[in-house]
Amino acid sequence: MTVERVFDQPPAGLVMRGNWTVTRQSGDVSQVIARHNVVCTNGKEFLASFLYSAALAASTFTCKYMAIGTDTTAENAAQTVLGAEVARQTGTVSYVSNQMYVVTGTFPSGTGTGSIAEYGLLSSSTGGTLLSRTVQTVIAKGANDSLTAVLQITFS
Q1: Residues 150, 91: Cα–Cα separation, whole Å
Q2: Is 143 inside any structural domain?
């Protein structure tokens, strides 16, 4: 069994920020204060938990569909689909504390064969919104091979 583990420095992750603007009016005088916000840890926990509960309920706003493909084009935030998708499965979702949402996709023998290099998480069993995409070392998935991919999204 060959195990390859490459944990390079991840690209800049999800950043949540916004601005609060407060205006006080006193007669003809206005006082405006604007500051950046802090997204609290329990708010991040809420969002990870929400993704999990939405996926379990199969609501409209869910991301639990794992896709695999053969394109080796580097990831780009503007991408909306995999480059060369060969299969898509409904993933198994879980919620882990510390603001982590996990999706596991299993592609059994006979499903998604080829030189698999790209993986994506989408919001629908067809089409949908591409939430995450990665390109990895090519895996030659034969007709009798199974493949399991696990995506962990941490809100930080």
Answers
A1: 9
A2: yes
Predicted structure pTM score: 0.76
Average pLDDT, the chain: 82
Q: Which two tokens stand for residue 152?
A: 């962990």
Half-sphere exposure of 19 (CA within 13 A, CB side): 6
Q: Using an 8 Å Cβ cutoff, are 119 and 134 in contact?
A: yes
106 within a domain of the structure (yes/no): yes
Q: Is there a domain that residue 3 lies in? A: no
* CB neighbours of residue 154 within 10 Å: 15
Q: How many domains does the chain have?
A: 1
Is 104 exposed, middle or buried, given 0-12, 13-18 or 19+ CB atoms closer than 10 A?
Answer: middle
